[in-house]
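We close this part of the discussion by returning to an individual protein. Part of our work consisted of pairing the sequence of a single chain with a tokenised description of its backbone. What the numbers capture is local backbone geometry rather than side-chain detail. The amino acid sequence and the backbone structure tokens for this protein are reproduced below.
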Amino acid sequence: MPVYKAPVEDTLFVLNDVLGLEKYHNLPGFADATPDMIEAIAGEAAKISEEVFFPLNLSGDQEGCTRHADGSVTPPKGFKQAYDAYCEGGWSGLSVPEEFGGQNLPYTLHSAVGEYMSSANMALMMYPGLTNGAVAAILVHGSEEQKRTYVPNMVSGKWSGTMNLTEPHCGTDLGLLRTKAVPQTDGSYKISGQKIFISAGEHDMTENIVHLVLARIEGAPEGTKGISLFIVPKFIVNADGSVGARNGVSCGAIEHKMGIHGNATCVINHDEATGYLIGAENRGLAAMFVMMNEARLGVGLQGLAISEAAYQSAAHYARERIQGRSLTGPKAPDKKADPIIVHADVRRTLMQIRSINEAGRAFLLYTALQSDIAHRSPDEAERQKADDILSIMTPILKGVMTDRGFENAVQAQQMFGGHGYIEENGMSQYVRDARITMLYEGANGVQAMDLVGRKLAANGGRAVMAVFKEIADFCEENRADERLAPFTKALKKGLNDLQASTMWFMSNAMAKPDNAGAGATDYMHLFGLVILGFMWGKSAKAAYERLDAGDARTDFFNNKLVTARFFMDRMMPETVLRKARIETGADSVMALDAAAF
């Protein structure tokens, strides 16, 4: 059976020592996030994750969701009770402004505890996760009336939310969507069309579901320039805020999926459903991107979460499974064989997963902190820099951490041998659940093209130059510290490869755009390696500082330094490979005629 324990100690190390959250107490909501408060919240999040969510993960996968004849959907047994416990604990409003019923704590803290909950039960956490994104979109682009009508009940968890983008004939290319919106005399619209892949699209855990729907108003321009965003509630909300008549929204089917069986991924039919415009006409993508960007950060979190959960079960199994003898002599001479943890290749596999997870945790929280600064800092220059960094980190976090998360889940499954292929051991579920993270909220190839095609050149390259400077400054500031030399030298070499590849794109992609497309995924992963290496450099420095201060947790910090060294020795050299692939260009990629495939 799988095991899971929330990595609270590591989270606190990242928040307090690596990122130094106390430095940001001038930002709204941060003053309350003292180390003691953070530790208490992380502890409570660990408790609900381990004791309430995790026991339902395997059973929820096996049972799945049930669609009834009337179109209603029931999630797996125990999900509603677990969701109610989540809402009663105030977790749904952790980082939402107090005026809408939230606690206004940092989004960084919301992300930290979100990892535990998604590790424990990713399918369950997708229900409130989609709601958080919908709340963010309404807060930014909704009218005051819309905020008052929908947000408080969504923050409390009484109502949930979804994102309705994809249609049967179009995925990423939203300009092809056919869902139409017909204006009504009362200012509302009649929405008609079919949406697919709608996570948490129908269920009985909340009294209302608030769908955010992309549609084209009659007469609007073709393509993305003619798309608007609408609030389409499952039940119409009465003037007094109560739930009224059923809207023309129904679940036509539940998708038969590879994984995340506990989440109701629905075909949603809009049959002249009443909808309400959010923001300006034909500006729906700008409004929806608020939700999409938050969702992409959440999916990057899911990649890390599944990787961590799979790692913990694999490490536990490797310590218990008896098979073979160590190449250097028996390590358990009183037994017929040694535990497989003694074997170098098993160690290599587990260390690779661990080194990505721990750096990925720092990467996630570093990125979440940029979001907090961008939205809360009173200093315009700070907000702009943080927003620039957030913009470029979003596709990297989503793409790299989900690619690596799936790869790590597969490698963790490998530790079990044939037992990893058996459903009741839980590793198959991690592999299946991790696979979707590479696909939804923009497949990872799309994330790579977004990074190379849009983010690098934005504002004259201002964002990428800010990231490069931050990493270079770290290397220079710590160049004289001999203890950090293994980290700063490897990081600087990786940064040099990244900068050279960036310059190669500038010289070779303008005249031949296929060069950018052919190298985009390698560039995204090259960038990701450097960011993970940067997180390890900062973590190593913080670990040495804690040891110098006499912190009694010497095992924790020494293990941190060993894992950091492994990453620099075994993972960072991959930047050379990525750079070489990028610089081969697109000739061999594009040489075959399409008919030859």
About this structure: The two ends are 43 Å apart (CA to CA).
